[in-house]
Write a structure and sequence with these properties.
The chain has 198 residues and is of the alpha/beta class. 38% of the residues lie in helices and 20% in strands. It has a 4-stranded mixed β-sheet with strand order 4-3-5-6, with helices on both faces. A two-stranded antiparallel sheet has the order 1-2. The longest helix is centred in the first third of the chain and has 17 residues.
Length: 198
């Protein structure tokens, strides 16, 4: 299931394979991005989640240099690492896969989102046991308050053995004159943790 601002926007029946789910979400968004099908599962998950939020960070008055990304998870790129290991572990059937090897770093997820959406600001991917709302809050705040970044895409993107979850949010510096809607909440550590981890 995919929720945006707490509202269910896309779902399929339970217990389907990730590949089926993510391709259906791709079609639902009317995406035209052939490179998507060559990505590893972690990158597909991050990219498709970002796509559902893209209207919030792809605005005319914000340049690519003014958008940042801060993501994290607990398993890094382990799913792809395991798949790559299978291609090199058997000496009699040794076939290293360059298409897998390129995805054996978790920050490739941020790179794929940046390429697709022409984001040129700061981007980083952290690996930690659990979502560290305090640390991410500090980093996002610094980008917006001190580094000239106007919008940050932040959150958690995890994929391992067909188990997956992706929870992202958009952080913006809203002026007092801006129209505040019920989808906008204050950027506090507590709110960030609640958004990302439920």
């Amino acid at each position: 299931m995919i929720f945006v601002n707490g509202k269910l926007v896309f779902s399929l029946k339970k217990n389907i394979q990730f590949s089926t789910f993510v391709k259906a979400a791709y079609r639902y968004n009317n995406m035209t991005y052939p490179k998507f099908f060559k990505m590893d599962n972690l990158s597909k998950l991050g990219l498709i989640t970002a796509e559902f939020l893209s209207d919030e960070f792809k605005t005319k008055n914000v340049l690519g240099e003014e958008i940042g990304i801060i993501l994290s998870n607990s398993t890094s790129s382990l799913d792809t690492d395991n798949n790559y290991q299978k291609t090199i572990s058997n000496n009699s059937d040794y076939f290293p896969s360059p298409s897998l090897f390129v995805y054996t770093l978790p920050n490739i997820v941020t790179g794929e989102i940046c390429i697709k959406h022409k984001i040129l600001g700061e981007s980083v991917f952290f690996v930690s046991k659990s979502f560290d709302a305090g640390y991410i809050h500090t980093l996002v705040s610094d980008l917006i308050l001190n580094q000239g970044i106007k919008i940050v895409l932040a959150g958690w993107v995890e994929y391992l053995d067909n188990e997956y979850v992706s929870s992202l949010c958009i952080v913006k510096n809203i002026s007092e004159k801006a129209e505040i809607t019920k989808e906008i909440i204050n950027f506090t550590i507590e709110n960030l943790k609640k958004i990302i981890t439920g």
